[in-house]
Every structure is written in structure tokens, then in C-alpha cells.
User: What shape does this take?
Amino acid sequence: MKYEYKSTCSYCGVGCGILVSRTSDGRVFIKGDPNHPVNKGKLCSKGLNLHHVVNNKSDRILYPKVRMAKSYPLQQVEWPKAIDRVAKVFTSLIRKFGPDSVGFYVSGQCLTEEYYLATKLAKGFWGTNNIDTNSRLCMSSAVVGYKMQVGEDLVPISYEDIDFADCFFITGANPAWCHPILFRRIEERKKNNSNVKIIVADPRRTQTCELADLHLQLKPGSDIYLNNAIGRILIEEDFIDSSYISKHLNGFEEYQKQVMTLSVKEYADKCGIKEADIRLAASFIGNAKGYIPMWAMGLNQSVIGVNKNLSLINLSLITGQIGKV
Assistant: This one.
């Protein structure tokens, strides 16, 4: 007998729906959920192999082990003893050095409820603010960018918008490898409409570039120069939505002054790419009826990640591409 449950793939963050089944002998099986709006039954190689993580116990830690000192070997213990040991060590450190002497670094694969419990323990009981996670490293730049520009930590778009867009700007990302189910949807959109344009900005030539109409092979770290150059061209060529700007945006004059500080040729030199290619990218974006920028860690994981995000989102704002129906 099989028992089947709906769940979500825990890997890349696209959010593919999965159906998890378990046999009476404890074996777990995975398949894509055909009724899920994100993946419609499709799974990439990572999702298809999720069940192997559960079924393969050859190298998994099944019991707590404790080392009483650095030179001591690990010894298997019962859970109460392990938890008691952890509690005593943390209590001793906090009493001696204060609550900020301890901290949590939490996995990016945790569920929301698990994050809540870890944060509650760290801040509510230990009294420390030292809790961090891979998911914050991944997304903090995007979060701050969204809050500064649209006032909330959310993406003002849905996957269904891919089916109506005619221009995609993929930057700092290789979704063909890293988010394949999402990329298949972009491929399908381009297959069904030959007028769809895809721009890829990446110092490397990746598999994603194979689908691109234009690959901007910029110098690493020059993303803001590229985005500001495109912004300047959109303004100069009157590709902006003046009505949208006057009704919904603040700070456009300051932005315009900022992007005009360098010529397009100077921007191109700083990026290490042709001026003509930047102008072509701007024309794709400016002429688009539905424009979607897509980015990932190439922008987010940077000491200027927030500014990279701001410079990219600005292109959607000045062209009035956020909030369209």
C-alpha cells in the first residue's frame, strides 16, 4: 500500500510541487505534481533524486554523538544526554562571556517553522542577535532592494507572466543549469513566439547564453555601469513611461542625473563590451510590451549587491513595467 502526500521540492527555490509516496516497508518515492502551477508535473534531476537522500542511510548520522573534549573520540549517546550536554555548554559560555558569545548558522533548506524555532531560541532564550542563514546571504540584497523601491519584500510578478512577456533580461544567473524547470518555461515561450528577445549579461558563456539573442559578456563587477547605461539610453530614446513615472515614482530626477554622469561609450568601456550591444539591449527592453528581468546570486552575493539590484529594478520602473495588467 502507498500513501501519497503533496509537498514542495527543497532545492533551488523555484517551488516545484512534488508528490511523495511511501510504501509499507518504508521506502520513499518522488514524482512531479501534475496539478501544481509551477512545474505542472515536471522535475529536474535534483527534484527527481530527492528520495535517494531519504532512502540512502549508508552515510547518514542516525544517532547523536558527543565528544567530551577535543582529544576524545566521538561516542554515541542517547538524545536526552546529548541535549543536556549542548544546553550545559551553551549555558556555561553565556554566563562567562555573555549572550553574544554564541550564535546559530542555520541551513538554507530549513522550513519556515524551523527558522522560527531557531530564532526563538537564539533571540528569545539566549538573548543573542547572532543568528544567520544561507537563505539570508542569498536574498538579503534583493530584500533590501525590493523594500527600498516597492516598499515591501516581495516580487511583483508571477510565473504566469512569463507566458506574456516578450523580453527577458537574465543577469548574474544561469537558470538553464540552476533553475531548469523555470528555464524550460522561458524556452517554451520563445519557441511559441519568435519575436521574444532574451538578453543574458554574464562574464561567462553559460548554457543559458545558447538561447540568448544577445550575450553581454561584461567585466565582473560592472553590472551597475551596464544597467545605468541602459537606463540612460531608455531616457534619451524616450522609451520611458512618463505618465507612470509622474504617478508612481519618486526620485526620477536624481536617477536621471546619476545615469547621465557617464556617456554610453564610457559605460561600455567600463563594462568591456561594445556600445552597440548595450544600445541593442536597450532597444529590446524599450520596445517590449512585457519585460521581465531575472537575476540570482551573481548580483545578490556582492558587497554592492543592493545597489546592483536597485540599478536593475530601476529599468522596470522607468519603463512602467511593474504593476501592468
Observations:
- The first strand starts at residue 2 and ends at 8.
